[in-house]
Amino acid sequence: MIGTLEQMIKDMEHGVYDFTKDGKCSSCGSCCSRYLPLSSKELKEIKRYVKKHHIKPKEHIFPTTEPMLDMTCPFRDEENKICTIYQQRPQICRSFLCSNPKNGIWATKREFHAKYRVVDMRKEIWEE
Ligand code: SF4
Ligand code: SF4
What is the distance of C-alpha 102 from the center of its chain? Predict the structure, then answer.
């Protein structure tokens, strides 16, 4: 089991988890997490955008008997396969592309986590 997890992390580091189509983001949403490292300026701008456009958080339901924390980004509209704040999405979302090994999940995480605080967007944008 541990071997499998290690292999999975290695694969992700080397860009094996490539969900792009013809080299472009397929908007699959697999990388859209509710926890993102954001600058305070970005958070402020997103809050303003959400208020202005009356954006409500999206819920993501998984087939399970146990209640689960919704880890997907509250801006991910799964039905229409879009980001509801696309014009105002943060830098990490603009930079990340799963097929790029140099800018893969861990490299991007390290870069942004070193600079910014991780924000629970569902909590900080709608519940505080
Ligand atoms: S960058 Fe994210 S949304 Fe785009 S294809 Fe890769 S995993 Fe999917
Ligand atoms: S802000 Fe948009 S692009 Fe970024 S994680 Fe959320 S849904 Fe995905």
Answer: 18
26 lines ligand 1 (CB under 6 A): yes
pLDDT at 38: 95
Number of Cβ within a 10 Å radius of residue 31: 17
Return the best residue to mutate from 24, 30, 105 for the ligand 1 pocket (most ligand atoms within 8 A of CB): 30
* Per-residue pLDDT at 69 exceeds 90: no
- Ordered DSSP codes for 29-79: -TT-BSEEEE-HHHHHHHHHHHHHTTPPPPP---S-SS-----B-TTEETT
Look up the pTM and report it: 0.83
Question: Is the distance from the beta carbon of residue 97 to the nearest atom of ligand 1 less than 6 Å?
Answer: yes
DSSP helix, strand, coil percent of the chain (3-state; round to 5): 40, 10, 45
What integer pLDDT is reported at residue 3 of this predicted model? Answer: 53
* CA separation for the pair 104, 54 (Å, rounded): 33
Give domain limits for the chain: 16-127
